[in-house]
Amino acid sequence: MLAQRTRVYAAEAITLKRMDFGEVDRIITVFTPEHGKMRLLAKGVRRSTSRMAGHLELFAHSHVMIARGRDLHLTTQASTIEPFREVREDLQKSSYAYHLAELVDAFLQDWDPHRGVFILLRDALAALAEVVIAADVIARHFELHLLDAVGFRPQLTSCLSCATEIRPGDNGYSVALGGIFCPQCAAQEPSTSPIADDTLKVLRYLQRTQSVRGITIRTPAAVSLDSERWLRRHLEFVLERRLRAVEFVRHVAETLNGYRT
Ligand SMILES: [Zn+2]
Predict the structure, then answer these.
(1) In angstroms, what is the span from residue 252 Cα to ligand 1's centroid?
(2) Sorting pLDDT into bands at 50, 70 and 90, what band is 256?
(3) What is the pLDDT of residues 38-52, one digit of tens each?
(4) What are the pLDDT digits (tens) for 62-117?
(5) Is the model's pLDDT at 4 over the cut of 60?
C-alpha cells in the first residue's frame, strides 16, 4: 500500500506495451516487482528533447520515478538498466517478447505485485537477447513457470486421477483438468488426448528446470511444435481467450523460413 500513499516513488520496471497519446505523450504499461502492472503517462516523451526518450523502450528494464496522478500515474524520470536492444531489433526475438508481454498482461491484474513473475520475465528477455537457448524453448519454459506462479501449474509427473507416477506410454493430457492421466485413467477420461512421450519429457524437463539459464536441451522441430501446441491450448483454456502474439510468432517464423529457402 506504500504506492498508494507516497506521492513520488521509485520502481524497477519492464515495459510491456506502449501507446501514443495526444501530440507528444505516451501511455506505457509497465510491470514492476513491488507494485505489479500499471499504466503510466509519460508526458512529452515523444519530443526529441525529452530526457526520458530512449529510456522507456518496449521490453526494456528500467528505473522509473512514479508520481501519483489524478487519473493516471505519471512517470517523471526514467533510466535504462538493461535495454534488451537485441530483442527489439530482431524480428523473431521481438515476436517472442510480444508473446511473453501479452501473457504477463493477460494473467496479472493491475497493482498485483508478483516478484517471481518479474524475475521470470526479466530472465526470459535476457535469455532471448543472448543466442544460447532457442527462443521457442525460452517461451515454453516461461509459459510453464508463469502457469505455476499464477496457480495453474500443469500436473505432469503423476496421474491426476490415481496419482501413480507417469511413465512412458499411452498417457493422456487434459487441458480442462490441468495435466496428465496414466494410460488406464486416460481411457476413462473423455477430456484427455494422447500426448507423445518426447513432448511430455521436454515439458517435464522445462518444468523442473527453475532458471532459464539452466536449460541445456535442444528440441527437434516436431517436439517444439507439439510442445507449443499443448501449452497454447492450456494457456488459452485458463485465460478463456485466444493469444494474439502466437499468430505473430508463427507468421514471423514462416516468413523467415520462406526467406531461407
Ligand atoms: Zn491413473
Answers:
(1) 40
(2) confident
(3) 999 999 999 888 888
(4) 999 999 888 889 998 999 999 999 999 999 999 999 999 999 999 999 999 999 99
(5) no
Residues 104, 157, single domain; the answer is: yes
Interface ipTM: 0.99
Q: How far apart are CA 231 and CA 249, in angstroms?
A: 14
Residues 125, 179 share a domain = yes
Q: Give 102's contacts (C-beta < 8 A, 6+ positions apart).
A: 243, 244, 245
Query: Structural domain of residue 37, as residue ranges?
Result: 2-83
CA of 179 to the centre of ligand 1 (A): 11
Closest CA to 62 of 83, 43, 87, 48: 83
Both 150 and 205 in one domain: the answer is yes
Cα 224 to Cα 118, 136, 175, 190, 202: the distances in Å are: 25, 7, 18, 26, 9
CA distance 66 to 78: 9
Number of domains in the chain: 2
CA 234/CA 193 separation, integer angstroms: 13
239 CA to middle of ligand 1, Å?
27
206 CA from centroid of ligand 1 (Å): 23
Q: Are residues 112 and 234 in the same domain?
A: yes
* 58-74 core/surface letters (b: 16 or more CB in 10 A; e: else): bbbbbebebeeeeeebb
C-alpha cell at 10: 521509485
**Residues 54 and 104 occupy one common structural domain:** no
Give the end of a domain, one of 50, 83, 116: 83
Q: How far apart are CA 221 and CA 208, in angstroms?
A: 21
Share of the chain above pLDDT 90, in %: 80
Considering the domain architecture, whether residues 212 and 243 belong to the same structural domain is answered as: yes
